[in-house]
Specification:
The protein has 3 helices and 7 strands, in the order αβββββββαα.
């Protein structure tokens, strides 16, 4: 019964292959969007990938890399995480703007009701 309610997350079958002069690394894709591929704690730009398709289904995103390239992708990942955390706790600034818009709409509604009554 719980198996029907709880949706099982299955892998996409997509992998990332990193190729350098001395080694080849393979990682499963954790998630992806239009700009980036997330795999193995790295954020890899989708534009840099060569996409290859498996006959049985799934894709391989192939990247040529250097140590500097990996360091930059790790920095992008940490920057995204810190930005998400900063925005998560930055609720005070946006709520003031939302309150002003709410009060303007209430005032416009009240003025409209008074104008229609006369």
């Amino acid at each position: 019964m719980l198996g029907l309610i709880k949706k099982k997350e299955e892998g996409t079958g997509d992998i990332v292959i990193l190729i350098s002069e001395r080694e080849i690394r393979q990682m499963e894709v954790e998630s992806e969007n239009e700009q980036a591929i997330y795999a193995g704690g790295l954020t890899l730009p989708r534009a840099d990938a060569e996409v290859r398709y498996f006959p049985a289904g799934g894709r391989a995103f192939v990247y040529g890399f250097t140590q500097q390239y990996l360091a930059e992708t790790e920095n992008i990942t940490s920057l995204e995480k810190s930005t998400v955390l900063r925005n998560l706790f930055d609720y005070g600034a946006t709520s003031k703007l939302a309150n002003i818009q709410f009060y303007v709409m209430i005032a416009a509604l009240i003025i409209t009701v008074f104008l229609l009554r006369n």
